[in-house]
């Protein structure tokens, strides 16, 4: 599209154009290249935090140490646990928190079993790491996915 057309396009027209471009990319570029472009655009739009969409994408691939697959807890469950434990979503959001809680369960079930407090403490330590850059949960996911 020419610059003038883009500047005069409605939000819906731009959205439709973007979807068309993504579909073309998906068909014509390597899957890894497409994933890289998708994640860069995602971070431009959403910052370095999970959204519901990306959380679902990340959790569906988890292979848990207890033999199950996918997320162990829902966002509502982990948000409730956060509230009970005085954890605020000031530096991370509820989707970041859910991802980390589920990641800790997935990776450390053999150490923590069904002790939810164990995963709460690990998740707090992970997300409140003073040496880590903002968006640690998403950065970690992007580094280890695939």
Topology as a string of helices (H) and strands (E): HHHHHHHH
Q: How helix-rich are the residues, as a percent range?
A: 55-70%
What global shape is seen?
elongated
Q: Number of DSSP helices?
A: 8
Summarize the structure.
By secondary structure, the protein is mainly alpha-helical. 67% of the residues lie in helices and 0% in strands.
Features:
elongated, about 150 residues, mainly alpha, 2 domains, single chain
Descriptive overview:
The structure is a single chain. It is built from 8 helices and no strands. The radius of gyration is 18 Å and the shape is elongated. It is 67% helix and 0% strand. It folds into 2 domains: 1-46, no CATH class; 48-146, no CATH class. The longest helix has 19 residues, at 94-112. α4 packs parallel to α6 (94-112) and α6 crosses α7. The model has no long low-confidence stretch (mean pLDDT 89). With 146 residues, the protein is mainly α.
């Amino acid at each position: 599209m020419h610059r003038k057309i883009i500047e005069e396009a409605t939000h819906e027209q731009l959205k439709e154009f973007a979807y068309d471009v993504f579909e073309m990319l998906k068909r014509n570029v390597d899957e890894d290249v497409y994933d890289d472009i998708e994640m860069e655009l995602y971070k431009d739009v959403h910052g370095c935090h999970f959204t519901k969409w990306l959380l679902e994408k990340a959790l569906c691939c988890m292979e848990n140490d207890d033999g199950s697959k996918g997320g162990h807890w829902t966002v509502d469950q982990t948000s409730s646990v956060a509230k009970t434990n005085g954890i605020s979503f000031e530096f991370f959001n509820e989707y970041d928190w859910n991802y980390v809680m589920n990641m800790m369960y997935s990776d450390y079930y053999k150490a923590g079993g069904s002790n939810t407090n164990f995963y709460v403490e690990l998740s707090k330590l992970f997300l409140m790491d003073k040496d880590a850059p903002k968006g640690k949960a998403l950065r970690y996911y992007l580094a280890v996915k695939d």
